[in-house]
Amino acid sequence: MTRGGGQWAATGVLGLILGLLVVVPLIFLVVSSFRPGGLPWNPGFTLDNYHTVYSDPALAEMIGNTLVFVGGSVALAILLGATLAWLVERTDMPARSMVRAMVILPMATPPLLLAIAWIMLLSPRTGFLNKILMQAFGLESAPFDIYTMGGMVFVEAIAVVPTTFLILSPAFANMDPALEEAAAASGASAGRIVFRVFLPLMAPALLSAAIFVSVAGFVVFDIPGAIGMPARIFVLSSQIYYWGNETPTGLPLYGQISALAAVFLVVLLLLGLVYQRATRRMSRYVVVAGKNYRPRMISLGAWKHVALAFVCLYFVLAVAAPLLVLVWTSLMPFLTGFSLSAVDMMTLSNHETVFSNRRIADAASNTLVVAVVAATAVTILSAVISWVVVRSRAPGFSLSSAR
Question: What is the pLDDT of residue 61?
């Protein structure tokens, strides 16, 4: 087989695999939205599912909640992730290698556990941190309430900061300092350099990170389910879960789920296309190719301590505080706040119960198998897709069209 024939074959096989994984489920989703029973094989055709969903007065509030949740968490995550990436890659902040590891450490914590930990910390009735602040300052009511939109945005942003950091960090590290140095030599102020040189060069990476995190925010359920649903704050993912599992009749509303998901699917596809377009055109922002350079490191001076304090604060919020409250609760016979008197109640009975439960062992084994198999399959498929997109000359996958 010729090289061109091999590329065509690889493209065809990849297209078939992606069609089975992506196109077929989407067709089933759209067909289900027009079925009276909500299942693809049900007979008949109806628009009642769309009418029921989109004539509901509560829909506007749910859409508003979704947009606020996604927009707020993306904005906060980009702010924190970009700041951390800039400090690690472009400044002389001490211990940058250790900070780099600390920033991505929260990726080892599932978002659901992170949400549960912050519920334990900031619940208005039983939150550990709220109780400490109330006792310390003589407050009559809890100063924080995690069961709010602000609480959802905060926890989601903390959960996705490592992702934004990993996307933005290479962009900061590989930025050619030529234009910055030229602007500084011409007398441009620091603010003018930031807005006329720095941000335009970073625009593709920032846009890619924002869109990627936005797509994740639309579909994530862990945090909206744990924090939002008890407070009756519904977003797209939690509304779909509610219609599938907690309806008054006890029957899943597959037709309404499909009708709601079909329209939001269009939004996600548009975001995906914008993300693809942004990543395709990153090469337009290259200043000089093939030149060996190092980015200009910015001296923080006395602000080094402030930068380290910022990193430590992030680590406390993302790792230390959630981990501490989870470990403390696991050692208590019942939910109780931090105190010296409670130390005497510490017990390993909870751990013994967990490790002696056969279902926990089975769950851990299943989790390991799923993680290994899924990670391996995704890595192989992603590598093949990357090769086809970059190297194949078949229609739709040529290098020139990718640019």
Answer: 92
- Phi and psi at residue 397, to the nearest 5°: -130, 15
Chosen domain end from 345, 370, 387: 345
* Residue 40 is assigned to a structural domain of this protein: yes
Amino acid occupying residue 96: R
295/149 same-domain check: yes
Closest CA to 28 of 38, 46, 40: 40
The residue segments making up the domain with residue 371 are 1-26+357-403
pTM: 0.84
Which pLDDT tens digit goes with each residue over 203-225?
888 888 898 888 888 888 999 99
Q: pLDDT value at position 70?
A: 94
- Say if CB 339 and CB 135 are below 8 A apart: no
Nearest of 262, 270, 237 to residue 152 by alpha carbon: 237
Please say whether the dihedral angle defined by the alpha carbons of residues 345, 348, 351 and 355, taken in this order, is positive or negative.
negative
Query: For residue 226, what are its two tokens?
Result: 């744990």
Q: Closest by alpha carbon to 87, among 333, 269, 332, 313?
A: 313
CATH of the domain at 168: 1.10.3720.10
22 and 38 together in one domain: no
Q: Within this chain, do residues 162 and 258 fall inside the same structural domain, yes or no?
A: yes
Residue 81 shares a structural domain with residue 216: yes
Average pLDDT value for the chain: 83
Shared domain for 77 and 192, answered yes or no, is yes
Spatial neighbors of 371 by CB under 8 A, at least 6 apart, are: none
Contacts of 160 (CB under 8 A, 6+ apart): 73, 77, 81, 213, 216, 217
In a domain, 87, yes or no: yes
User: Crossing angle of helices 96-104/304-315, nearest 10°?
Assistant: 20
Check whether residue 126 and residue 248 sit in a common domain: yes
pLDDT in tens, 151-184: 999 999 999 999 999 999 888 887 766 666 677 7
Only one residue has tokens 């000089």, namely 288
Cβ atoms within 10 Å, residue 327: 10
Identify the weakest region by mean pLDDT among 110-119, 134-143, 245-254, 323-332: 245-254
